[in-house]
Design a protein that fits this description.
The chain has 227 residues and is α/β, with parallel strands linked by helices. The protein is 37% helix and 17% strand.
Length: 227
């Protein structure tokens, strides 16, 4: 099955070349979609040199809209049967691709989440961020009668066909709860696998903020009762 890797980007000039090298080194990505969401730090100069080389396609947003908007653009442009979302900030390790893809390849799952909370190696940092993630996951499980361990994970892999007829609207970090809510309501088969995790802190460029947690809660509540 053809694999499309979507990399949403906003001001990641320091990490972009390295994450692209890591993705390519897996030998699994048939197409890599770099979706730039209005970067202003020199990322676009780098993207101009990468476009069209070794399966890389660059898509540009003229202004910053948010991670969700970049991911939605990538999904619309992807041609692979399987889609994998990869952050550009080096927090997630592409060496986990084999584990992420296996449940789909073995026809055990339609969607796979890479969980940061299932015991794999991870950097020890940011307690309050971890707590917020766990509270959002608890809210998801309570509202949708499921047993996820990491709803907010950036590693989501899925058969592209599972989104047929699904309208995704989120522009910011509320993409994660919207995607999760709509996939759960469709009764898609979801697997979780443990992944390693190397979180950066805010001094290193982390972008998600406390207000995004409140937006996530609102999205979980809203999509529980609406489409």
């Amino acid at each position: 099955m053809k694999l499309s890797v979507i990399i949403p980007i906003f001001n990641e000039v320091k990490t972009l070349e390295e994450i692209l090298r890591q993705v390519k080194s897996t030998g699994l990505a048939d197409e890599i979609l770099l979706v730039d969401d209005g970067s202003t730090d020199g990322t676009r100069d780098l993207l101009a040199r990468l476009d069209g080389k070794q399966g890389v396609r660059v898509i540009l947003h003229e202004k910053n809209q948010g991670k969700g908007a970049a991911v939605r653009t990538g999904i619309a442009a992807a041609t692979g049967e399987i889609v994998l979302i990869q952050d550009a900030d080096l927090e997630y390790d592409p060496r986990d691709y084999h584990a992420l893809l296996r449940p789909i390849e073995e026809n055990k799952a339609d969607v796979v989440y890479g969980s940061r909370f299932m015991g794999s190696p991870h950097r020890v940092t940011m307690f309050w961020h971890m707590l917020a993630n766990k509270l959002l996951t608890f809210a998801t499980n309570l509202l949708y009668d499921t047993i996820l361990t990491d709803m907010e994970t950036g590693y989501k892999v899925f058969r592209r066909e599972v989104l047929q007829g699904v309208s995704l609207r989120a522009n910011r970090f509320d993409f994660e709860p919207e995607f999760t809510a709509k996939i759960l309501k469709r009764k898609s088969r979801i697997f979780e696998v443990p992944i390693s995790f190397n979180p950066r802190d805010y001094s290193e460029g982390k972008k998600i903020k406390l207000k995004d947690a409140f937006e996530a809660i609102w999205a979980l509540l809203k999509y529980r009762f609406t489409d």
